[in-house]
Design brief:
Blueprint lengths: L1 H23 L8 H23 L6 H14 L2 H13 L3 H29 L4
Helix pairs in contact: 1-2, 1-3, 2-3, 2-5, 4-5
Length: 126
Amino acid sequence: MNWLLVALGGAIGASLRYGAGLMLAKPQMLFPWPTWWVNVMGCLCAGVFFALSQKYTFLQQEARLLLMVGVLGGFTTFSSFGLETFQLLKQGAVSIAVSYVVSSLMVGVIMLALGFYVTQLVFTPA
């Protein structure tokens, strides 16, 4: 059953990733915005889910497999991130590659923390 949850979540996440790429991609785009956006939003979602899973035990087992491993694993794109960074470096676009890497990591961690702490505030019992 766990494999099925991961597979189902992965199919959902990959489909969402594909759709986001179609919606955000523009011809002649130098900076890889679609992948950047997906990674940052994936980090935000991870922070929200992590915060919720610490408060609600029913979100710790099967839901974690479905949502974190499956959906977010299929949605976020660090393999694409690595490939695009390599391609930028190979093309000599070092400053774009560096800004892509640094901003992806910094904004991703900030968004994860934002999702976590805002969710904790909203779901804290009165």
